[in-house]
Each structure stands twice: as structure tokens, then as C-alpha cells.
Amino acid sequence: MSSQTWFDGLKRSFADVPVGADNSISTTEFLEASESLSTLFDVLGSKAFTPVKSDLVGNVKKLNDRQQAAPAESETVQALSVNELKTKKHTASEGLLWLVRGLEFTAQSLRRHIDNTSEKLADSFRGAYGDTLSKHHSWAMKPVFNLAMGAAPDNENFYRSLASIPAGAPVSDETKAKIQEQLTREVKALENIVVILQKFQEQPEAKW
């Protein structure tokens, strides 16, 4: 029997976030999934990833605060942003912009691993960072995030952590297969939501 994995314990998977026929994304489930995904950086096992996680969690809080302040106007992520912008404020909308950037980085990092499991995880994260967040970060932020990328565990230890297997113990082929299946499902759903929100943010009503 394969081990219980990190995915099994998630409060919300991106694969379980409701997406409407019009691509509207349910706010509560989206924020739960984003916060759940942020715990992946705990699994990576280095304090160097703390700024990466903090960035995601901080932006989730901005959206959650707006949702709590105006629940009737925030049932979907898109409605939350548009309705906030009508008040001439953009705290949550700016938080969403950075949250989507962080989610895109995470999705690309994991996609690189899925597509090339022989690539070192640190290289997967470093490559994804260069293609996503790096272009939005200041010269002061880049070294902080580059340090985190280099602190990623090797692939075997990554799987051990995802399956809560003690250091040095073998990871069975069955457990690896389960993790890869769950990872692929999660990343595919995350990629879809990132694309939807990026397209939304290109619309005039989403700008400030």
C-alpha cells in the first residue's frame, strides 16, 4: 500500500476549485487552494523558502480581507477584483496580480519536474524563476529568491518529504507513481486557473 502523501492532506486542491462556464473562479475555494499550495514550500525543507511562502500567503490575505469586507461582491475572484476597483482601491487586485505571478512560478517549476524528472529540482525552480517572477523582482529581491531556488532538495528527498518518509528510507515505485499522478493533476488544474486569471488581468476592467 502506498503512503499517504502531502496531496492527500490538502485542505483544497486546485483540481477541486470550481470554474464556471464563463471561466469565473470561486473565491473561497481559490484562496483555500492557494494557501494549501503555499505549504509545499514547507515540504521543501529549507528556511530559504520562507520569503516565497510569505509572499503567497500575504497576497492571499489581501484577497481574503476584501472578501470579508464585501462578501456579496466577492463570490468569484474576478468579481472581487472588479468591484474593489470600482471603489478606487486596488489592494486586493494588486495582491491578486502578485498571487497569480507566484502561482505561475510554482506551476512552471513543478511542470518542469513533471516533464523532466531527471532534472534537479533546484534547476527546475531556478529555470522557472528566471522565466516568471524574476522579471518582476527588484535587484534586492532576486538574490533572496535565487538563494531559495538553490536550497531545493534533491528529487529523491522531495518525494520522501511529500510522502512523509524518514530520511534515508527508500521510496517505493508505487509511492513515486502516486505522487507523480497527484502532482500532474494538481499542476494541470493550477495552470488552467493561472491562464484564466492572466487573461482576466489583461482586460480594461481589471486595471487600475
From TrEMBL:
A GO molecular-function descriptor: ceramide 1-phosphate binding
Keyword Nucleotide-binding set for record: no
UniProt keyword Transport present: yes
Superkingdom of the organism of origin: Eukaryota
Pfam families: GLTP
Keywords for this protein: Transport
Transmembrane intervals: none
GO-annotated cellular components: cytosol; membrane
Domain Glycolipid transfer protein span(s) in chain numbering: 25-163
Classification via PANTHER family: GLYCOLIPID TRANSFER PROTEIN-RELATED, PLECKSTRIN HOMOLOGY DOMAIN-CONTAINING FAMILY A MEMBER 8
Name of the molecule in the record: Glycolipid transfer protein domain-containing protein
Gene source species: Aspergillus coremiiformis
